[in-house]
Each structure stands twice: as C-alpha cells, then as structure tokens.
Amino acid sequence: MKDVWSSPRFFWPVLLASAGLLGWVDYITGHELHFFVFYFIPVCLAGWRLGLTEAIIVSIMSTGIWFYADFKAGNTYSRHVVAVWNTMIRLSAFLFVGWALARLSSLLSKERELAAKLKESLAQIRVLEGIVPICASCKKIRDDAGKWEQMEVYIRDRTHAEFSHGICPDCARKMLAEAGIKSTHFGEE
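Predicted structure:
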C-alpha cells in the first residue's frame, strides 16, 4: 500500500490549505509583519514529496497568494517596479528551494535503489572461507554435518561456480601408461 502522506490526492489539499492559510495570516497582519519564510513550507513539501513539477506549481501559487495578500493588505510601493521586483525575488527563491529539494529527494531515492541492489548482490555472493577438510586421496570434502561430498558438488552448492571436466596432460599420460598405451601426443617417445 502506498504511503498516504505522499499521495497527491492527500497532499494537494494540504498544500493549498497551508498556502491559503499563510495568505490569510499575511492579509490579517498587514504589510508590517512578513511571513515570507513560511511560504517555503508548502514549496518544500511539494518538492520533497511530489517532485519538481509540483514544486514549480506550488512556488507560483505561493508567490501569487503572497502578492494578493500583500496587495489586499494595502501595501503600497513607491513604484510598481518595486512590487514586481519583490514578487520575482520571492518566486526565484521558491523555485530554487523547490528545485533543490526535488533534486535531493530524487537523488536520495536513486541512492536507496542502488543500496538495495548492492545489498541483493552482496547477498548472492557466497565465499568459501576457513579450513576446508579434504580427503588426500579422493579429494572429497567433509561438510559441517560430517558428510563427505564430491569437491564439485560441495563448491557448486556453496558458490555460483559450475564445473566442466577434462583431463590434464599429466593425468592423461598416467592413464595411458597404466593402460599400456604409448603416446607421443604428450611429449613421450
């Protein structure tokens, strides 16, 4: 089940309500008290939980709410360019913080995925270590239960190694000699 807190169906009303509440408080308190820093809360939540697009939308929305509350509270500026400047500064700050948190959240998510893959890979790696009791004659290996197993079976069951068989030149010469066959293929005359 998906986390309710990161669900857009839950989060959008929370973001809208928090930005609206901030605008209302901004309007009620007038232009003497500034609540600019609190508008970062919905922007940060959108960037962290929902992503970059949502952070941009909430940044624009928060800037609009701030501007409307500032205008309705009766704040007058010496020039219109000052109001535009203040609005653009706030928008720039909101966009930067929203982008930074969306990026950080994305990178953290990727890091978690990579850590999970690494953990899975490390769990698949099985290493033989310690002293392995092996028969000096037939080369079988004794397991922890005391059962003697073929070396290939023992290693295959404890690692991801697979075996193929062949005969080395020394053993081939020995086998041919025991069978009474003289061969020149292995350096003998």
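Summary: Residues 115 and 153 are 32 Å apart (CA to CA).
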